[in-house]
């Protein structure tokens, strides 16, 4: 069940019941863009679709959205190259995550590196990708006392997601490691290394 809401004169907001529906429909829509569609911006339960209203119309966009057949997430259908991120598993919350999950430190690292992750959407900061996977054992709450500064390259987990902080910023995720790989570079095109639909794996640095 979806709801399609107007968002100004040249955009619609599509609401879905759950994140897997967003991911499957985002892939389907991204692979079958109709003329006039400018951008697709997924979030946890929605996709914002921006379009040129001199080329297409709300009714045509709605018909396209409702006709989309979700693409399963068992394989990378985005056409984007997979990204491998080397991580030093030295995060200040690694031991705590091991306790919260019951996996222990080695178990957390094994689960994090064994999973195939997919960028679901871009979140609170430019280049901050929310990655999801079928691995549920790493689901932990955010910290009760968020840090005022989290360094760029910090790798964290929170809820069903993992992510890499693109720059120094406040943050409440549980930090399990660090990467030297830059996920955001304003001089790069596109600046973000991790885009919605990208498949990501983590390896020990």
TrEMBL record:
* Annotated Gene3D superfamilies: 3.30.1360.40, Cyclophilin-like
Is ATP-binding found in the keyword set?
A: yes
Q: EC number(s) in its UniProt entry?
A: 3.5.2.9
Matching entries from InterPro entries are given as: CT_C_D, Cyclophilin-like_dom_sf, PxpB
Which Pfam families does the record associate with it? CT_C_D
For this protein, the record's PANTHER family field holds: 5-OXOPROLINASE SUBUNIT B
- The protein depicted here goes by the name 5-oxoprolinase subunit PxpB
């Amino acid at each position: 069940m979806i709801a399609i809401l107007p968002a100004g004169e040249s955009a619609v907001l599509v609401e879905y019941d759950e994140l897997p529906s967003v991911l499957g429909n985002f892939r389907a829509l991204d692979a079958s863009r109709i003329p006039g569609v400018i951008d697709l911006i997924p979030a946890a339960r929605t996709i914002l679709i921006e379009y040129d209203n001199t080329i297409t119309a709300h009714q045509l966009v709605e018909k396209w959205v409702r006709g989309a057949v979700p693409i399963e997430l068992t394989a990378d259908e985005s056409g984007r190259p997979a990204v491998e991120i080397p991580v030093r598993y030295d995060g200040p919350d690694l031991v705590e995550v091991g306790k919260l999950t019951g996996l222990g430190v080695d178990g957390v690292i094994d689960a994090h590196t064994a999973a195939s992750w997919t960028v679901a959407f871009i979140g609170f900061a430019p280049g901050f990708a929310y990655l999801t996977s079928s691995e549920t054992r790493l689901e932990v709450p955010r910290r009760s006392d968020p840090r005022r500064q989290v360094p760029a390259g910090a790798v964290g987990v929170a809820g069903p997601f993992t992510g890499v902080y693109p720059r120094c910023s406040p943050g409440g995720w549980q930090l399990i490691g660090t990467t030297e790989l830059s996920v955001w570079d304003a001089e790069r095109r596109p600046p973000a290394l991790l885009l919605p639909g990208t498949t990501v794996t983590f390896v020990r640095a």
